Amino acid sequence: MDDYNETKNFFNSNATNYSNSDSHKNDSDLEILMNSMELSGDMIGLDIATGSGFTAIKMATYIKKVYALDFAENMLRETRKLANENGMDNIEVVKAPVEELPYTDNFFDVVTCRRAAHHFMDKEKFLKESYRVLKNNGMIGIDDMTASDDNVENLNRLERLRDHTHMYAESPERWAQLLKDQGFRDIKYKIYEKRLNFLEWVYPVAENSPEGIESYNFLKKADSTFLSYIDFKNNSFIKRWVVVTARK
């Protein structure tokens, strides 16, 4: 429960910062996710851990109705604000945890989750619930930070220094296995890469905060294999996201 409350407090405190994040709003992984989902006008969708709502808003331009779910009240406030600014009347915000979705079985045509799953304490339960609420042949699309099996542990150490609510990012292969274990099929994934300078990466945490300083020191002293993998140079490095899709 302490981890749950810490995560909730972090996102409530940083909701406005996330709503102003150009990376969350405009990076190409969002378009990759949308293009991978085979969206059509009569669909009903669920965006899990919607944050400030960028994915829900984007998906709502393609389909009939989108439910934007999060457990942080301030994040949902930002989603409502963004929906109103974009004149979107087909979005409904919902406060609920990702492990207990307040919907009946076989309700949604599509479920998405972007840049959030590394915060989940129980990915298996998240996927089980997603499978339950999806219609037969419905699609799930997950977009999250990633690294290869050999480098994901160092990625997680770095991300936890910046953000103590970070639980665990998964390799693409691990995501495929998690989805398969819950009964999903037709599993596919794509990798999106972007070079970030340190200030871009550490946001919304301040560079001179204890978290920012610890993160920078880790990068300066990290294993050479990991530094080569992320191509750390001139205070910048490559960050990777995996966009994985599957069917019920």
Mean pLDDT: 90
What is the CA-atom radius of gyration, in angstroms? Answer: 17 Å
Total beta strands: 7
End-to-end Cα distance: 31 Å
Q: Low-confidence spans: pLDDT under 50, at least 5 residues? A: 6-21
What's the assembly state of these chains?
Answer: single chain
Instruction: Please write the CATH class name.
Output: Alpha Beta
Describe this structure in words.
- The protein has 248 residues and is of the alpha/beta class.
- It has a single domain (2-193, 241-247), classed as Vaccinia Virus protein VP39 (Rossmann fold).
- Helices cover 43% and strands 25% of the residues.
- The chain has helices at 2-13, 15-19, 22-26, 28-35, 54-60, 73-85, 123-133, 152-162, 172-181, 198-202, 210-221, 224-230, and strands at residues 44-48, 65-70, 91-95, 108-114, 134-146, 185-197, 236-247.
- The chain has a seven-stranded mixed sheet with strand order 3-2-1-4-5-7-6, with helices on both faces.
- Helix 8 (152-162) runs antiparallel to helix 11.
- The radius of gyration is 17 Å and the shape is globular.
- The two termini are 31 Å apart.
